[in-house]
Amino acid sequence: MRRLASAVVHVVGGGAYVSIWTLAVAVALSLTVVSPAGDLPPDEAFDGFVVSLIGALVFGLLLGLVAVLERNIPTPRGRATAVLAGVAVAAAARPLVQDAALRAAGFPGDSVEVLAFRVATNLIVWLVTLSVTALVVDAIRSRRRVNALLRSVRAELAAAQQSTEAYDRAARALVVRVVDDARTRLAQWNDPPTVEQVRAFAADAARAESHELADLAAAEPPRMPGELDVRRARLFGLRLPPVGLVGLVYLVFMLPYAVRAATPAVLVVGAVFLVIGSLATDYLPRRLSVLSGGRARAGVFLGVSVLTGFALSLASVLGGLTGIRVLIPALAFPLIAFAFAMLAAVVHALQVEQRRLSHAVASQQRALRRGTAPARAALTDAAQILHRDVQARCVLQLQTPSAGIAADIDELLAQAADVFARPAPPVGAEAVDQVIATWAHVIAVDVRIDDDARAALDGDGTLARDAYDIVAEGLLNAVKHADARRVGVSVDLTSTGAGRMLRLAVRCEGILPRGAALRPASHVRSLGAELVQVADSVVLRALLVVDPGGSRHPVVSAVHPA
């Protein structure tokens, strides 16, 4: 309930309470379910429809004015005040406008007492109906926005991974070419080599080629175009909505009109039919063992809702009601059921898409963690072998000629050719920088990593990998759960009674849903990270022990940075 209240507060003050969908729902219901045409004889129903149309147009215009106001008020409190006051005025004006139109058309109007009752019921019904509509629209928009952002992040990560792979291929190809060229030159030597051959080899095959290797080791990988994930959630479908939702919405919407138009006997019979029909609509599709697929369950759900609607209309007839209004329950209940089944399918499809994208982003972030560090280290090693060792052997040959120089240099070239087969160097601060830079293409990221923290990350590969995982998870959560547009990442060193600690925090503005926490099986939770609310921000934070000896373990401290 607290979460629902928080969502209502957010949507009322969010600046998009009234949308095209809100207006569509308001006009459609004004012309059908709550139209005064149902209270008139069949031969006068058209006049009632015209009156409904006038009321719907005035209602829609007033809501449009509310939309303009809320989009031009800068503060959430001001927007909420404008929305609540505007919807209240529009809802109260609707029955007054309809009554005036009925009197102008020659029909008797309602008494002051009845008109006051209609104003009160309109206030309740429309505030609830429009708020539910706004909540659903906001949820769908939010998930679509988050999924679009995740698709962009995935494209950026894929591009970064492709750039890394392209860099690695270029590095390997350059080492192979340099070694092959050197061996070709070596094969052309005399036995023993002349002074000119040794000098030329030292200048060209050793010094110049080592510079080429070093230049590529220092270069940025090529920027590859990201390929956007074009797969989208299938948004049209049917899915069972939450239990009790259809019956509750029908009750809230219809009860004020039923109380005014029906006798107590009709209300009792209708209540019994509504309870039985709602239970059957919700539980039959879920309990029938022969229904194994979602489509079959949705079909039964809609079929039972149609029967419930007819049963409610039958209750109206049995209670003595006549005219078009006895058909309203037969239309309203299945239409509400169909609408919520479609909305449940949309929300579920977007949730599935978000999980797919989240898993893909997490997987690509793990793949990106190694980055270009191994290729850069291999290029640096190869450059050092040529620049330091091969040149040194050539200089020694010029000073003290030896018959074994060709074999010595060939052995050094074999070491240069083998640099990619050596163990990869540990991940350092560069990996953390890279994941932040990737996310910075799609959201604003404020970064603060102090020099001591960078030195600790570069000196401990395990520490750097754990820090990378925590920062990557924090960035992903910020987009998924807080709908963030700006994220702050801070990494620094702090001294505690347990020794030096690496303190990490990924924060964004937002409200953490009640009960939200890292999953028990979460990797970053095992590292000591926790997800908390600090003031008006959601923060993923952790303390990692920094031990120069290489023995580390995560610590969950009783005191965390705010």
UniProtKB/TrEMBL annotation:
Transmembrane regions listed in the UniProt entry: 7-29, 49-68, 80-97, 117-137, 240-259, 265-284, 296-321, 327-350
Key word Transmembrane present: yes
Keyword terms of this UniProt record: Membrane, Transmembrane, Transmembrane helix
Keyword Transmembrane helix on entry: yes
Protein name: Signal transduction histidine kinase
